[in-house]
Amino acid sequence: MSLRAKLLLVALSILALPWAGWRFVREMEGLLRQGQEQALLASAEAMARGIAVRPGALPAVGPGWFAHGLDYAPRLDGRADDWQGAADGPTGFGEGGWLRASVARAGGQVFLLLDVDDASRQRGEAHWPGDLEFDRLRLRLRTNNGEYLLRLANGEAGPLKVAGEDGLPPPFRVEGWWRERAGGYTVELALPQDLGLRALGVEARDLDAAGRRRLAGSLEAVQGAQLIQAWPLHGYVGALEPVLQALTPPGMRARLADRQAWVLARAGAIAADPSEDDLLPWRRGLYRALLFRDVDETAADRADARGIAREEVAQAIAGTAAVAWRRDPYGARLLLSAAVPVRVDGQVRAALLLERSNSEVLLLTDQAFSDLLGVSLLAFGISGGALLWYASRLAGRIRRLRDAAEKALDREGRVTPFPRARARDEIGDLSRSFAGLLDQVAGYTDYLRSLSGKLSHELGTPLAIVRTSLDNLDSAGLPAEAQPYLGRARDGVERMGKLVRTMSEVTRIEHAIAVAEPEDFDLRALLADCAEAYRGLLAPRELWVDLPEGPLPFRGAPELIVQALDKLVDNARGFCPEDGWVRLTLAREGGGARVSLANAGPLLPEAMRTRLFDSLVSLREKPRGSEGAPHLGFGLYVVRLVAELHRGHAEARNLPDATGVEFTLHLDLI
């Protein structure tokens, strides 16, 4: 990764700021929720105490029947499809609830729906003697005119047959219908308007084929016998609604339920969701997905539902206050409900459910989130921009330092001035360290460049002394066995002398290059004259010359160019076989010229192509020359110096057909 990318990656740590802010928003939203829960519980408990001071309208302690109010009287056909939802939660009796009873009121009449599961049909008639065993129903009615026991039994489906306990018709007319169904039967009946029913008891007697009997209903064991108990009736209390409305805070909905969770009264309504207009849809979706993840249940019951199937209501009926959160199925808000028991003389008579929305919390959360988002974006933009600017500046300084380091040594190995940064940071220290190091390298390089001249000057006198001493030893008449050693010493001195002369020549050439004065001449004519002189030197090798047709005016140092050609020709002569060829080429190149000398022979090692023009570098494997002196590799070094004097460079390459090598001088006017 680049430095800029790394700094940008570090800049991502700024994202911890919005993350921490988001955690704060969530914590704040949680605290606001807790505050709403406590406030709603307090309001519900205050309302429950206000209702408890008027206990007359509340259901009595103990079991009872909830008589649902119907908008119109149902048709007596043994079916519950026209009970307008009043039969959806019947009261069950017996093991598994094989007897189910529902009570409703419409037009002053009381309607009763009894559903019995009976897999074994043992039917009879209501007027049969009571000591006969058959499937039947019994009702205990407590009215304003007294108490009645009724027997209900049909031998087959049809109009309901009703009789008293003595088998005679009852003192009032009871209309109804007996409907047989798969696995049981259903009885639907209506009691007269003027009966004044205050309490109702029900019993179902089921007889199977083996003669076993089972009972279910509102029974109570008295002295070993199961007796029908008449439970009082209660229902929706309209008189409670003004009281409940007065106690309900604005924007909330209150419902009072009996111990079976049937609604006794309702008042108020949950305020509309203001966030629908104030929040954008994507924000509502965001809050719903992120803030309300801990709330899974959706509020699905209707405001006018007859019953309340809520866990918190069940807890309140059991005597414990409870709260619950639910999602609003039509918006982004949450709905909070608090259920508290309504106690009278220490006994739970009903449960109060108070509901509200958390739209205010949602709007406060949105405001906090908007502020957090704005501050985070501003902080991230400023910090990210500052880091990006700093990374760009730092990367630029490092790139300049890299470029300066790459250019510190030119192609010829010379050290160029290295910029010294004034900055007091680590990069400035690094640039100054590089500059100091390169100054030492430049000094050492200059020392190496002048080493040959110093050695040739310093070694001249010692070699003369050694040569004179050897001459004196030879004239002193040494024994014959010492003569070979004397000859070897003389050969060594001669070789060292040639080395000293070669280094002196290089020093002289370097000095000549340094003080060379340019002049105008015809480069083509110069190379043509040199080529004629080289033919005899290169024989029997074949020399090919490729020169331009016309003159090639040039401004430079002709004697130095000739010395460079001498070195190239000597190099070609040393590597080209006697049956080989040498080719001299001259061509114009921009404002200057290109001089090439190619020869047949071995190819250049790829790793040595860029080092051939350095001092003291040679590829010759054995001594050459009449005196057997080793080759020091100064020839191509002189070629490079001449090319640089003419503001050009020298290069070497293998020929494309791999038949030899080619050395090229790129020369420009000086």
TrEMBL record:
Give the EC number(s) listed in the UniProt record.
Answer: 2.7.13.3
The record ties this protein, via CDD domains, to: HisKA (cd00082)
Q: Name one GO cellular component term.
A: membrane
UniProt xrefs under Pfam families: HATPase_c, HisKA
Domain HAMP, residue spans: 392-446
Q: Name one GO molecular function term.
A: phosphorelay sensor kinase activity
State the reactions this protein catalyses.
ATP + protein L-histidine = ADP + protein N-phospho-L-histidine
As for subcellular location, the record says:
Membrane
Which keywords appear in this protein's UniProt record, sorted alphabetically? Answer: Kinase, Membrane, Phosphoprotein, Transferase, Transmembrane, Transmembrane helix, Two-component regulatory system
Limits of the Histidine kinase domain: 454-670
PANTHER family, A to Z: SENSOR HISTIDINE KINASE TRCS, SENSOR HISTIDINE KINASE YKOH
How is this protein named in the record?
histidine kinase
**Which taxonomic lineage does the organism of this UniProt entry have?**
Bacteria, Pseudomonadati, Pseudomonadota, Gammaproteobacteria, Lysobacterales
